[in-house]
Amino acid sequence: MTIICAVLCAVTLTSGCSRIEGSGNIPDPDPADSLSANQETDESSYIYSSLTQEERSYYDILKDAVYNYEEEAVFPKKLSPDMMRKLFVAVYYNEEGLFWLTSMFYRPAENSDRLKLTYRFDREASEKMQEEIDARTAEIFSGFDESTSDYEKLLAFHDSIVLGCTFNMGTEYGNTIYGVLCDGYAQCEGYAFTFDYLCKLAGIDCYTVTGTNLEGESHAWNIVKLDGEWYHVDCTWDDPILDPPDTEFIRYYYFLVSDYDIAGVTHIPDSSYFTLPLCTAKDNYYVRENYVASEGEQAEDILIKAAADSIAKGRKDIAVRFANRAAYDDAMVRLFDRKGIRSVFRYANSISDRSFEERKYVRYCNSDELIIHITMIYA
């Protein structure tokens, strides 16, 4: 009989979550196939491809053990505790479809061929939850057809997560895709896992990044590959807690951004086991949507365009980003001191079935990222 090494300590991979405060088409999933699909790992995925051939074989063993709800993963030879942790981190953060696995890592006291596993839910409960996940996923993907670009899919994933989920650290499902897609409450890990999950279903390379904010609080977000370039996406920080609450509020400060925008600035990635790809592309959401102004006098016209786009989607948030500080400062004067913003609301009222206030609005000015964001108020 093989003797199992005594557990030295059990460590939860992510103990907290930082949060921002704020004033191609697929068929409907077959529930019978959904869990078996979780057993397949795309060999081109960034994390999996970063492993050696030997490490991949251990990864597959660990993943299969989780899929089968085994109490332990048993490897063909003894592995070091650090290798065990690397494999556990890789599977836990790359296989978000295995949402029943807890983040509790039981570190062996010495080299071992066994790793203890614990689960949030039993198989029966997980299968029922997966059916709900499949139904919600099919609903999101139903809006796609052969002409839908990967950018449009990523935007839909981002929006469905931000608008459909409320940040909450105290829920049973908060660290899972079920929490975001079905329960409607989650913390950062759940947000990141869900964006990753939807991307992989769409065949888009994505993975969950862990690290901290500048205050040292743990956090999770995503890096995604679009048109051959890597970008950061943080759905959690695009869904701030507002007082009073606003379930329609959405923003894109952290959607398809570069290292320059956040890495080491607001987000500190943990690269203990995997080297992050460079995210150098500058064509963020504002660039792609033509919401960038190089001069302050352009702000009004861009906000008018943003209003038309927002109203067409049944929304009320508009924004413009500036290429430089001088343009941003000039726009602040033109829009708010000289009341140029009122012409934007007059235009919005001319094309909308709903009426907007012309003198009342909520203004969010991000002077660090040079963004002016306006929430129009219904009259």
Model description:
This protein is an alpha+beta fold and 379 residues long. The protein has three domains: 110 residues, no CATH class; 138 residues, C8orf32 fold; 90 residues, no CATH class. It contains 13 helices and 17 strands. It has a five-stranded antiparallel β-sheet. Strands 14-15-17-16 form a four-stranded mixed β-sheet. A two-stranded antiparallel sheet has the order 1-4. Helix 5 packs across helix 7 and helix 6 packs antiparallel against helix 8. The longest helix is centred in the middle third of the chain and has 19 residues. The protein is elongated and about 70 Å long. The N terminus is likely disordered.
What is the gyration radius calculated from CA atoms? 23 Å
**What portion of the residues fall into strands of 2 or more residues?**
15-25%
**Average of the residue pLDDT scores:** 90
Instruction: Note the total helix count.
Output: 13
| Helix and strand sequence | EEHHHEHEEHHEHEHEEEEEHEHEHEHHEE
Model regions low in confidence, pLDDT < 50 over at least 5 residues: 1-9, 23-37
Main traits of this protein?
alpha+beta, C8orf32 fold, 3 domains, five-stranded antiparallel β-sheet, four-stranded mixed β-sheet, 13 helices, 23% strand
